[in-house]
Amino acid sequence: MRSIPVSAPDPSPAKAGQPGPLLAVEGLKVHFHTRDGVVRAVDGVDFQVGTGQTLGIVGESGSGKTVASLTLLRLAPPPARIVAGRVVFEGENLLLQPDKRLAEIRGRRMAMIFQNPATSLNPILSVGQQLTEILRWHTGVSRQAALDRAAELLTLVGISDPAARLRQYPHELSGGMKQRVGIARALLCEPALLLADEPTTALDVTIQAQILDLLADLRQRLSMSMVLVTHDMGVVARMADRITVMYAGRVCETADADTIFNAPQHPYTRALLESVPRIDHSYSGARRVLPSIAGRPPDLLHAPPGCRFHDRCPEAAPECRRTMPREHLVAPGHSVSCLRRGSPGEETP
Amino acid sequence: MGALRFLLRRLAFSAALILGVSFILFALINAIGNPIQILLSETPGVSEEMIATLSRYYGLDGNFIDRYGAWLWSIVHFDFGTSIIYNQPVGELLEVYGLETLKLQLPAILLSTLIATAAGVIAAMRQHGWADFSIVSSAMLGHSLPGFLVGIVLILIFSYWLGVLPSYGAYSTRNLMMGSMVIDGLWHMVLPVAMLTVFNTATLTLLMRSSLVDVLRQDYITAAWASGLPARRVVLHHALRNAFIPQLTYLGTLFGLMLGTAPVTETVFTWPGLGALYITAIHQLDYPVIMGVTMVITVMLVVATLLTDIAYVVIDPRIRLG
Ligand SMILES: Nc1ncnc2c1ncn2[C@@H]1O[C@H](COP(=O)(O)OP(=O)(O)OP(=O)(O)O)[C@@H](O)[C@H]1O
Ligand SMILES: [Mg+2]
């Protein structure tokens, strides 16, 4: 079983009785212990996803979005190590579950679609083999029943002639078609939460729009929650109920989508929005990538002390160099992590 | 493109290849000169007439094309002429010695594939761990040791010191082990098969490990884990099959170049196989045997290549027949 080592998990159990959000990530730290030192890829991240909600996680390349989302299923690649935090999903802290329990949750309650459809399907197994294997493993249905269900899902994700597709191999499908198969694979067991890490980045612009429409539609029909990781502000504008902005392994700001777009607080969020030409035409135009902000994100191997954004921040004050801001609520449902917005700080050496 | 057409095209290609090699071989041997002349001209009391008579007897007279045609025609009937040294039909020698070679090589290839796959899986699953380190270093060692040294050390330990396993030959000359030909034969196979297995396994293990490490990093493996499949399915069904694809070429080479490793093993263990036969034939200029064995090597290489191509088509759906 692939699962990353958890070196110092918080052993406190989920608060019983209170119906919490579907997913609550608290104080998550995932570090890579490399030969050159410790890469603090995710360094104290909190976010929540309510039932039926879509959370968009945005941030520049290298901000830790992929590592954070893979860690939700305890799948970050070696040499990743979960150093601290909890991932509470449907009342269980997944970081403490035995591998066997985790395998029951993966693909059944929480499933994932990947950025690159060309590499995320096994090249030597037919579509039918890949889909039915998962279904049969989780539900124990007969081969025929699994094939029927797989065909049903292919229809659901907009693939015509599913019986023929099931016999085909990934290389016989177009990129958009492969991503649809990837989505069908994730939805086989009707998971409560779907993780989508840049599900459209690798696709042609016109196909991107189709896939996003499909995801929006499926989310509605299956009343599914979603974590949508992207660096395309247009995509989150269209899809997300709530948005978490990440920078260099930490969360800058979390709020409702409207608030993020209309009343952003964190200087980084503002910079991001200014770097996006027009968000209302969302995904129909050319792909918009974030890093048009001056400067480069910090090297996480030598993360700067204080606020990680300080050297690119137009509002940076001397204290920002020394003190790391901690997230605090500026309004109900709107949290910001910035000393200039009143966040409490912790001294960093 | 249909599977039958693919197969026919490949067969035609193979036949052409074998024909080409046979011609080159014949021309080369021909260029060495008349072996009867070479073997006997120094011998006192042998007249030119005797040499001429013997040359006629072995079919060494006449022009090049006629002789090549006759030779080709005879090998189609599995008649490779008569060995000058053994005075026996070469076809018979090839059969008897060839079986002895297969007896060592096939079990060794099978065993090393199994061992290397298991070792490769263990090493790749615990990359940079203790097991990985031990497996990789023993494989490196096995890979860099000369094959004959392994054979000699095996003989030293198991035959000389412990005295439990025979060190030479395919059968006991006097008392058969437990009175049975089969058991006695198997008993003699142990050490030479072990030597070959060490040799093959080392390289295969390193290949298997690096290919698995590479596959385990692929998105589709992460996707398989993310689907909740158990380790057994992910590793054996999703990863191993993909990791095996690059091994096919090497396995094919092992089959095809069996006779590359055979001479050393068969010399160390005095094994009556094709490799030993080949070496002797070369030393003694037994040209019908040399030509026969060379043709066998060619055919084996061609067949191995054909089998490898077919295996690729079977295992990898991305490969188009053509
Ligand atoms: N295997 C690894 N070893 C060491 N560091 C790693 C490894 N994988 C990721 N990282 C580091 O973790 C950090 C976060 O990477 P991550 O892939 O999560 O970024 P991201 O936000 O998803 O970026 P992108 O938008 O490019 O996908 C990066 O700075 C990267 O250097
Ligand atoms: Mg990423």
From TrEMBL, chain A:
Pfam families: ABC_tran, oligo_HPY
Entry GO MF terms: ATP binding; ATP hydrolysis activity
Keywords, alphabetical: ATP-binding, Cell membrane, Membrane, Nucleotide-binding, Transport
Mode of membrane association: Peripheral membrane protein
SUPFAM superfamilies: P-loop containing nucleoside triphosphate hydrolases (SSF52540)
GO cellular component: plasma membrane
Domain ABC transporter per the UniProt entry, residue ranges: 25-273
Superkingdom, taxonomy of origin: Bacteria
Localization annotation: Cell inner membrane
Main localization (coarse): membrane
InterPro entries: AAA+_ATPase, ABC_Ni/Peptide_Import, ABC_transporter-like_ATP-bd, ABC_transporter-like_CS, Oligopep_ABC_C, P-loop_NTPase
Any one GO BP annotation for this protein: transmembrane transport
Family of the protein in this entry: Belongs to the ABC transporter superfamily.
Name of the protein this chain belongs to: ABC transporter ATP-binding protein
Gene source species: Reyranella soli
UniProtKB/TrEMBL annotation, chain B:
Entry keyword ATP-binding: no
Cellular component GO terms, alphabetical: plasma membrane
Positions of transmembrane segments: 12-32, 104-124, 145-165, 185-207, 248-269, 289-315
Bilayer topology term: Multi-pass membrane protein
Highest taxon of the lineage: Bacteria
InterPro entries listed in its UniProt record: MetI-like, MetI-like_sf
Chief location: membrane
UniProt protein name: Glutathione ABC transporter permease
Source organism: Reyranella soli
Organism placement in taxonomy: Bacteria, Pseudomonadati, Pseudomonadota, Alphaproteobacteria, Hyphomicrobiales
